[in-house]
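User: I'm putting together a small comparison set for a docking exercise, and I want a reference complex before I start. The sequence is below, and the ligand is iron/sulfur cluster. Could you produce the 3D structure with the ligand included, as C-alpha cells?
Assistant: Of course. I'll restate your input first, then give the C-alpha cells for the complex.
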Amino acid sequence: MPTDFSRQEPRFFSCFDDPAVRALCARMMELASEIKTDVELYVDAFRETLRFPERVFHRLHQFRDVYDRFLQEVIEREDLGVTCGKSCPACCHVVPCGLEPLEIIGIYDQIRQWPDFEAIIRGAGAAMSSFQKVLQESGPTGKTPVKSSSEVFGRALSNFYLLRIPCIFLDQKRGTCRIYDIRPFICRAVFSLSDPAYCGPDHPGFSLRSLEVIEPVDEINFVLMETHAVMGASLGFRFPDILQQGLLAWHRWVRERPG
Ligand code: SF4
C-alpha cells in the first residue's frame, strides 16, 4: 500500500466484480462518455465563448456523486479500515495532481467570482514556485515537465507535504475545503488506513502511515484521457494536471487567448 503521495498504478480491487460496484462503474462510464461526446461537439464553440452547455457540468457533478458512492462501496466491501476523520484537512498540504481539464475549468469558473480570486491565483503561483524548488531538490528531473507518475515527482510530493504549505483552498480557520463540493477527484480518492495521529509529520509514526488511493477502472480513466486530449488539441493548450498549476495556466490562457 502506498505510504506517500506518489501516483500509483490504479489498484484492481476484487469487489470491482461485484454487481453493485460494476453498476456504479457502468454509470460512471456512461457519464464520462456523454461528457466526451459533448466536449467533442462543443469544444470549438467553447474556445470562443468559454462556455459549455450546462449539461456538461451537470454530468460532471453527477459523475462526482457516483464516484463518491463508488468509493464508499469499495471501502465497505473491501473492509479497508479507513481512519480518516470527517472533513479532516491533514492531507490538504499538497499539490493535488491528476486533474482533468473540466475539473480545472469548473473550479476556475467558481472561484473567479470570489473577492479574493487574485489572492488565490497569487497563492497558486507561490505554491508552484515552492513545489518546483522541492522538485529540483528531490532528484534528477531530466526532461521537463517531469511526469507526475515518475519516482522523483512522487518523492517531491512527499517532501512538499513535509513543508506544511496549505492548499490554496484550505480554509485554515475552519479547517475545511472551500471548494468541497467540486474538490478534485484525487482529493476524494486518498484515504488513511493508519492511526490518524501518524498523518502529522512531527509524529514519530509519520513514516509508517499508510494511504490508500481508490481509482475507477481503467476504461473510465481512458475516456477521461481522451476527453483531455480533445480539449488540448482544440484549444492548442496543454492542461497541466496539478491543481495550482492548472489554474495558473488556465487563467493566463483566458486572459491572453487570441481574439
Ligand atoms: S482542494 Fe480542498 S480537499 Fe483538495 S487539497 Fe485543497 S483543500 Fe484539500
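Residues 19-49 form the longest helix (31 residues). The chain has a mean pLDDT of 91.
User: Thanks, that's exactly what I needed.
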